[in-house]
Amino acid sequence: MTEPSASEQTAARHERTRDLVFGGMMIALGVLAPIAFHAAGWGGAIFLPMHLPVLMAGLLVSWRVALFVGLLTPIVSSALTGMPPPLPTTPIMAVELIVLAVAASLLRRTGMSVWVAAPLAIGARIAIRPAIFLLAVPLLQVEAGFREFVIVTLPAGLAGHRVADTPGTDVSGPDRGAANRARGVEHGRGRSPMSETLDLICRIHGHVGPYVVAGVRAGERALEHLDARPHFGVDAIVTAPDAPPPSCFIDGVQLSTGCTLGKRNIEHVIGETVELILRNRDTGEAVRVVLNQDLVARAVEILQTRSDVEAGAFMLECPWDELLTLEACQWPR
Question: What is the reported pTM?
Answer without folding.
Answer: 0.48
